[in-house]
Design goal:
By secondary structure, this protein is mostly helical. It contains nine helices and no strands. The protein is globular.
Length: 273
């Protein structure tokens, strides 16, 4: 019996699907900076979350199905379910406590070991499961799914997946987790910032203002509302990665070798004597 472990590799269809969903996601998050001030899109701003939410759900489903066709066998699906359940269970631990979100370090390590395609599917599914678990279902949920998919996929795109080990790898993942934690918070701010209206006129989105003016407003909004939370998330991710990361990486790689879900198991016929 022979088997070889490795990350789930992306085929052409998976790359195309990930590119499509990411492009739509960029439009969904960044439309305040992409649409010109005179655009009629701002007149339908209140409808935008529902429109993009519906579209992103469909696109994420397409990505998951395409990656599954690229080689997610039963063992990989089982691992995906276990990791998504673990991430969903970790998320409520820090609910209501600034930045204590241990699920992020698990997503970083899982994406690193299992690759970008598996990572995107895992991040999206984990957010979906945790939303059902915590009752956080709403038009913001697909945006969280997409942002977490990017977060986890990015870890799978880091250099040296087959060569870098030990402290160098742990340090790389800690730095990525620190920066990506801020990136996740910033991206999610884009999902709600355009709809503040008159709640905070000095930092709210102004559909009639130029891009530089709205960018300054958005930076002020991030600093005023989520900087402390993002910093806590980043620090917790770094601490858990440095302390628990080596053991979790070994466990994930051991499970991957045993599952060997990328290469089918073959049996050699005994030699005739």
């Amino acid at each position: 019996m022979t088997a070889q472990a490795g990350a789930v590799r992306l085929g052409p269809r998976s790359v195309a699907a990930l590119t499509l969903v990411s492009a739509v996601g960029v439009a969904g998050f960044g439309w305040p900076f992409l649409a010109p001030p005179a655009s009629q899109l701002s007149a339908h701003a209140q409808d935008a979350p529902w429109l993009f939410a519906g579209l992103l759900v469909l696109l994420v489903a397409v990505v998951a199905a395409t990656i599954a066709e690229s080689g997610l066998g039963p063992k990989a699906v089982a691992m995906l379910g276990v990791l998504a359940a673990a991430g969903a269970a970790l998320r409520p631990i820090g609910a209501g406590t600034a930045g204590i979100e241990p699920m992020f370090f698990l997503m970083v390590l899982s994406g690193r070991v299992l690759g970008p395609g598996f990572g995107f599917t895992l991040g999206s599914l984990t957010m979906f499961a945790s939303a059902l678990l915590t009752g956080g279902v709403g038009p913001w949920m697909p945006f969280q799914m997409l942002a977490m998919g990017w977060f986890t996929m990015g870890a799978g795109l880091l250099p040296g997946p087959d060569r870098l080990r030990g402290r160098g790898e742990t340090g790389l993942l800690a730095v990525y987790g620190f920066l990506a934690a801020f990136a996740y918070g910033t991206i999610m701010n884009l999902a709600g910032w355009p709809f503040m209206g008159a709640l905070a006129s000095g930092i709210a989105f102004d559909p009639h203002a130029a891009v530089p003016a709205n960018l300054a407003r958005f930076v002020a909004y991030c600093a005023a509302t989520s900087l402390g939370w993002d910093l806590g998330r980043a620090v917790v991710t770094v601490v858990l990665t440095l302390t628990l990361g080596p053991a979790v990486l070994r466990a994930l790689r051991r499970a991957t070798r045993r599952a060997a879900f990328e290469t089918a198991v073959t049996f050699e016929a005994p030699e005739k004597r």
